[in-house]
Amino acid sequence: IGGWSGGGVQFAPDSFRIQYRQFGTTRYASNIQIMAYHEGDETYKYAEQAGQIKFPDKNKDGQPQTITFPQIGEIRKDTKSISLKAVSSVGLPVYYYVKEGPAIIKDCQLLLDPIPTRAKFPIKLTIVAWQYGRSIAPQIQTAIPVEQVIYIKE
Q: What CA–CA distance (Å, rounded) separates 86 from 112?
């Protein structure tokens, strides 16, 4: 497998997981684009094949779940990282993505990007907590994503 995009991530040579990013949880993010390729050698020329793994934008079967995402509030521009502590009502892991603003998510940590010296404060940062659910027994429905707006102050 040579690459991917869309609402997923490859975590093993033949395994993928739903993983939303700034594209959100819309139907446009409900697939994973993949590319398989062969570099070519003395016998075979370079070859590639694109593919798509589609999945429903919401899992509607099973037990419902909700997400509780404690408010973070305002933060200062010199903040390096913040632990994100959202929880699912059924105990499944909650994931996050940055919808807008100068930050990334890594291992449930919000990491601020460097703020340009001429930036105008406050800077709006929107984080989304989500949980897709489970389609195997016991089935769990997709939780409604929870957005949180954080303002970065000087």
A: 18
